[in-house]
Specification:
Layout lengths: L12 H8 L1 H15 L2 H30 L4 H14 L4 H13 L5 H25 L12 H39 L6 H29 L7 H29 L3 H31 L2 H7 L13
Length: 311
């Protein structure tokens, strides 16, 4: 564009900052892609199906775990504790569901399994659609048979469950081993050693969540995703999820001081937490889709630009 005198119009200050700071330009592109691809609408749909399917999935999952670990209640309690520490903002909401699933494991039966399967497949299908949409034109929707789609959703649901188990096992085993070493060398009560232990626990938690986000970002979209962009976005996802956990733990703690908060706080907390996690997940997916190695792909060219590996 040119002004009346014929001189070229100068770019705005924000545009100049974007030109000088690649990370800022990438962030703005991700935000634009998120809005263009209806991120908030998809996040609301994920939240709805998450709340709808959470209880049946947890009931069946812990009923199965309770049967497998019937002779090892200590390990069962440790697994329950790891889930509570992974989402402390929702521990008060999830713990009664888990306890009920363990106590009534023999009565869950085939009906409960079918209900959980139906809810889980609906949730997984919507999640995969939402993640695929954030890749825009790079992921053209292909017509698939109903049976094939549900089978793939079932496999992805099982893979996500396995990734979560590996994540919890990594965090729990690593934390237990670090605590054992501190006790062994007699440093368990030393201040600096406790600080190091907390840092190790945080690092293990981030590593576990990185594995989960890597699986979600790389394997759940309905088209191939570049490995490099998924790995980098998973780092951002793990750190952001840890921040969200702490923020919502403080938020729900502030609600517990009033009778209304004690009554509705867990329900509201579950929905708000699920919505913000869904928005964050879709944003980092848009961030991965707008990475430099994928920018040409989003304009319609091949996703395998410059030979980038896919998973």
């Amino acid at each position: 564009m040119q002004q009346a005198g014929g001189t070229a119009e100068q770019p705005s200050m924000f545009t100049r900052y974007r030109q000088r700071c690649p990370w800022l330009d990438h962030l703005v592109r991700a935000g634009q892609a998120y809005l263009t691809n209806h991120g908030d609408h998809y996040a609301a749909a994920i939240t709805y199906f998450s709340v709808l399917s959470l209880v049946p999935l947890l009931m069946v999952a812990f009923a199965v775990v309770a049967f497998v670990l019937a002779g090892n209640p200590q390990l069962l309690n440790e697994l329950k504790g790891e889930i509570g520490s992974a989402v402390p903002a929702l521990a008060d909401t999830l713990n009664p569901v888990i306890d009920e699933a363990i106590q009534s494991r023999s009565s869950v039966g085939i009906l409960g399994l079918l209900l959980a399967l139906y809810s889980g497949l609906g949730w997984m299908g919507n999640l995969r659609d939402a993640l695929t949409a954030q890749w825009g034109s790079a992921h053209s929707e292909q017509a698939e048979s109903f049976l094939r789609t549900k089978l793939l959703d079932l496999l992805r649901l099982g893979g996500l469950g396995l990734a979560l188990i590996v994540s919890f096992a990594l965090t729990g085993a690593g934390t237990a081993f670090a605590g054992f070493l501190l006790n062994l060398v007699g440093l368990a009560d030393v201040g600096w050693a406790r600080a190091v232990f907390r840092l190790i626990t945080l690092a293990l938690s981030l590593a576990g969540m990185w594995l989960v986000f890597l699986w979600v970002l790389a394997r759940l979209p309905r088209e191939p995703v570049t490995l490099r962009s998924a790995m980098r976005a998973a780092v951002l996802g793990a750190i952001g999820f840890e921040v969200l956990k702490q923020v919502f733990a403080s938020y729900l703690g502030s609600l517990s001081g009033s009778p209304t908060g004690q009554l509705f706080g867990p329900i509201v907390g579950l929905m708000v937490f699920a919505f913000f996690v869904s928005r964050f997940l879709l944003f980092i997916t848009a961030w991965a889709a707008t990475a430099p190695e994928n920018r040409d792909a989003n304009s319609g060219s091949s996703l395998m630009r410059d030979g980038a590996p896919t998973v």
